[in-house]
Amino acid sequence: MFYTIGEMARKLNVAPSTLRYYDKEGLLPFVERSSGGIRMFKDEDMEWLRMLGCLKKAGMPLKEIKSFMDWSRQGDATIGRRLDLLEKQRQSVLEQQKQLEDTLLMLDYKRWYYQTAQAAGTCAVHDTMALDQVPERFRPLKEEWKAEE
Amino acid sequence: MFYTIGEMARKLNVAPSTLRYYDKEGLLPFVERSSGGIRMFKDEDMEWLRMLGCLKKAGMPLKEIKSFMDWSRQGDATIGRRLDLLEKQRQSVLEQQKQLEDTLLMLDYKRWYYQTAQAAGTCAVHDTMALDQVPERFRPLKEEWKAEE
DNA sequence: GCTTGACTTGAAGTTGACTTCAAGTTGTAT
DNA sequence: ATACAACTTGAAGTCAACTTCAAGTCAAGC
Known about the structure:
2 copies of one chain form a homodimer.
Chain A: E1 2-3, H1 5-12, H2 16-24, E2 32-33, E3 39-42, H3 45-57, H4 62-74, H5 79-120, H6 139-148
Helix pairs in contact in A: 1-2, 4-5
The structure holds a DNA duplex.
């Protein structure tokens, strides 16, 4: 079963021009062509594209993804390098998760801040608020901020 | 206590030019100037900058951060809009967390794939491998892929 | 055979987020 | 008073990741 670039793009929820761009950059060495030069995507190409999407969403630059693709074509001798890249990216994902945790706490604090301000009708309530009126989970946050100043 | 742009940049681990760029874009409406025109950052500016950094790392575009800054200057009437933006960003963070979870599972699967390939000396081991040889946690992943094809 | 929509390419344009540069100013230390 | 590092600005340059455009080709239906 074959798909044109338009069909594949619809499946993946990206623009066809994006897939052409990836192809030009050497990220899709696996796509075959019809005798007339039209790209023919196969079902098994999906796994590569899925991985590509995953790595991209995890913030890996296209250049590094290309390295991975290049190494894959070069065969078993490059397995070690591929593993290294995956390991590096795993580390990056763990760091991003930690970062998002921090951001979520900050957002929740700010949401609490504005919810109470909204209830009071003004942000000024926070000027006169004692620390023990701040929900416990947000207190470490404020302490941390003080330490950095 | 005041800080120059260079001192503040060092504290935040960014280039001074970045802070100037943010200022030009209207993201730092709170910075004061000396009589000679030099930016003077205050300790309390840190909280804004910290929030800015957090929102940026959570993928919020500078334009939206600017909206938030604009609304903050406009006073209590905009509390609702600020809450909406925070809520939206919270949602975005939750989605990103889910995305990173998926990516991590994929990375772990691929790492397992290449680790076993490395042990065998070739990727070909996976051609002859039965599904029950794949660690349990990765099986849903392979099933999911089949469904999408 | 012809139309039509989807494909092809290379080149140029866009966007977001900075960075670099040139020319000039500020402020601290001697 | 002068030197000098660090600041100021506007303008231009850079980079990644696309998108758009123009001119042409392919292939499925009538």
